[in-house]
């Protein structure tokens, strides 16, 4: 099976409508991938250790998507086995007054991982060309200027060996409504319910257009977007996990060679051992 | 008098050799500018207050130059009267191990001022395409790639209303030697003496070439470089101060209009006052 159909590279004429949010790439039942999922989690752990040890690359994983598309959920499921010493999740809400006074890349850049580290962004600098555009705080011209700055920013990161993986969690409006209802009707889920979700929902079409434009303008071959069907949570998690593992393995990360002085000291230890005997 | 001759805009074929480090733009004695200097400091205070109040722009002032070119000195002299609530000076030394693991813009971006604020950088992200290039830690291709990223970064800041002012403090090798000698021979100045300055001095030509290339590739009309003759400290301070004030005044910063509710409350207060009387 191949996840390339969800990969949006440079120059792609993306139409979100052409992607079915309920698609599962031919997999009929989540039981079919249970074993593979387990194996993928092990490979992820292995890769993260190599990344941490080699310090050759950093890995930034950006999650974007409509409300209820499962950004929190996917982070929880995919990274559950990972060493927290080498991984951080960052969630970006409405900017504080101080943050809003800065250039729009300032607050997120602080959280971009170093080489050796991985970080997941739950929302990101992309919001500054999405929510602001939909609500008319910035016009189309400013949105395009920001998207260009984002492309330059990600180019810089890539050239500095910070890989940028971008996921758009693609859901249908029906799926979203079901989740909102669920949150409203279920007392244990009230804490998740945000009345503004109902307001934002009215702008569905404008958001889809803004996403389409953002993805088109920032999809490059070095840093493509992945449009992941997300109406089925199990498939969403599987597609993200597998893409991430495959991208990490492409880096061919290896453990660093033992330092020369380690070898010398081992030799000394051995000699010391034998001289004591003689 | 006009300081435009020191301004390097887009496409300029800069030759540092064509600039005399001892030039004083026809001013024979620093006494000639004493009154103007005083007036400039007052205008700077005024402009900084407007910047702070209006929050419409930020101002980043980058100082680069060889060892002993007076980066510390100029910051001390130019910004002495400024409100520390709206200004910060940042000095960038050798990156820590943690910083070095990040992309090369990470540590400096954190210190880029917000709108309403001013910041002076004593050395900056430019070092990542200067000292590294001279010492061969990065090759020419990587240096050019970084300079391109810097241009994109500054473009983004400008479009976000963070103005970037760049000064190259231009000294002669003879002036530098005199300063180093001074530091070695003068017990009260020993703390300023760094033996590596003598080492770095051997790479004078390579540094001049690296600066020339860096300035050419990052001078834009929105964010030009200013090559300031710095063998005379008084002229260096004067040229920097005047350029800074003129750039701030170009922004036509105004105090914000009183908020509507202030007017309403004033009205209430007046009415309350009269009703008490009646």
Automatic annotation (TrEMBL), chains A, B:
Residues 29-250 form the Polyphosphate kinase-2-related domain. SUPFAM superfamilies: P-loop containing nucleoside triphosphate hydrolases. It comes from Paenibacillus albicereus. GO terms for biological process: polyphosphate metabolic process. InterPro entries: P-loop_NTPase (IPR027417), Polyphosphate_phosphotransfera (IPR016898), PPK2-rel_1 (IPR022300), PPK2-related (IPR022488). Transmembrane segments: none annotated. Gene3D superfamilies: P-loop containing nucleotide triphosphate hydrolases (3.40.50.300). This is Polyphosphate kinase 2 family protein. Residues 27-54 form a coiled coil.
């Amino acid at each position: 099976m191949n996840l390339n159909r969800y990969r949006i590279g440079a120059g792609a004429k993306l139409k979100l409508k052409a992607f079915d949010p309920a698609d599962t790439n031919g997999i009929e039942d989540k039981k079919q991938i249970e074993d593979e999922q387990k194996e993928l989690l092990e490979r992820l752990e292995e890769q993260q250790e190599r990344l941490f040890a080699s310090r050759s690359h950093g890995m930034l994983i950006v999650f974007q998507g409509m409300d209820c598309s499962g950004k929190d959920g996917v982070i929880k499921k995919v990274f559950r086995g990972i060493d927290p010493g080498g991984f951080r999740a960052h969630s970006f809400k409405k900017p504080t007054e101080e943050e809003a006074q800065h250039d729009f890349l300032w607050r997120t850049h602080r959280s971009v991982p170093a080489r050796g580290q991985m970080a997941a962004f739950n929302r990101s600098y992309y919001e500054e060309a999405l929510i602001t555009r939909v609500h008319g705080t910035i016009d189309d011209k400013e949105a395009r200027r920001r998207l260009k700055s984002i492309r330059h920013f990600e180019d810089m990161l890539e050239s500095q060996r910070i890989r940028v993986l971008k996921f758009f969690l693609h859901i249908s409006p029906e799926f979203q409504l079901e989740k909102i209802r669920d949150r409203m009707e279920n007392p244990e889920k009230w804490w998740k319910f945000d009345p503004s979700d109902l307001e934002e929902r009215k702008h569905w079409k404008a958001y889809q257009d803004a996403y389409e434009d953002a993805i088109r303008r920032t999809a490059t071959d070095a840093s493509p977007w992945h449009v992941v069907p997300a109406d089925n949570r199990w498939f969403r998690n599987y597609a993200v996990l597998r893409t991430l593992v495959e991208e990490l393995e492409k880096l061919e990360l290896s453990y660093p060679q033992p330092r020369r002085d380690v070898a010398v000291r081992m030799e000394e230890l051995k000699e010391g051992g034998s001289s004591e005997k003689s």
